[in-house]
């Protein structure tokens, strides 16, 4: 056959195949979209089931290795580390946050790295939960959850890792309880100083001026209202997350049309869209606390904040701490998240600026290298080390650092992970 004719024929066959694939994927997207959603597929054991909070334990996968989003394979470490890792998601989102896709699952990744991996499930709040405030989550539910993890794991010492509000709730828990058995705390894109720039600062400043005028000239006080009336409906939570990257919310549909033939992309797009479009109610008590004490009064930035009838002393937290911030995060930019480094007096703490926006920093394709892998390595190093007596010099010197991981670390291969272990 003439080479040119063969080339034209091959291209025609390839185009025909893509057209058939696009038709099949388009039919599923329109009429059987649940078949495309791949979130929440990792098996777990329900350790505690309350109202609304529950605790999950993610067992090691049965296979010898797991597949990562970049195509690499991660061998499973069967000998588990001694300290359980408790993942703390934000409020207003589903538990699929940390189990978004089979190749992009934080719970599966951490279990494969050898951690006894637990997840706090905040449940699906309804109207009757509208009164719940930050103290209910940061003190009462966190205390209950950690108690259940300690009972199930047999270990008193634990590590915490929270994204966004999950990191903030973890900080407040530590500030209230000063739990000496929480040895490591990792926060990812957690807001601290709401005068530090970004979208959160804009909202806080917009609220601050009228709030100060109302306080000065009227007797109206937001915290005196019935908190249930202030609950944010699910659609508002969805809107808030989409506003962190409004352009992508539109362009992703164009990407879907142009790549409708690609099954893997269609599954990823459908799963992410399902996650964003199924956000949860935000309890009014939390909205009340965040609006008055965090947004208007900016108390987190001072190191002390009153939560219900307790005071959370962030400036007394002494456990090892690792803080991540997304370099393109418009909601919680690095300048807002980094403030915690000046507040927490721990002598072992580090701050990393990593690729990604507010969601991409923990859920994106680059999060595995920039955040998950770094966090796992950091925890393993501390899990293996034994406590050392502090010298006078060490007590007055903090190992604080602000680091942007180099490109070679961001692109680190899976085999190097195992070599370090």
TrEMBL record:
InterPro entries, per database record: AB_hydrolase_fold, Hydrolase_4, PHA/PHB_synthase
PANTHER family for this protein: POLY(3-HYDROXYALKANOATE) POLYMERASE SUBUNIT PHAC
Domain Serine aminopeptidase S33: 106-357
Region described as Disordered: spans on this chain: 383-421
Enzyme Commission (EC) number: 2.3.1.-
Annotated keywords: Acyltransferase, Transferase
Principal EC category: transferase
Descriptive protein name: Polyhydroxyalkanoate synthase
UniProt keyword Transferase present: yes
GO molecular function term, any single one: acyltransferase activity
Ranges of biased composition (kind: Basic residues): 398-415
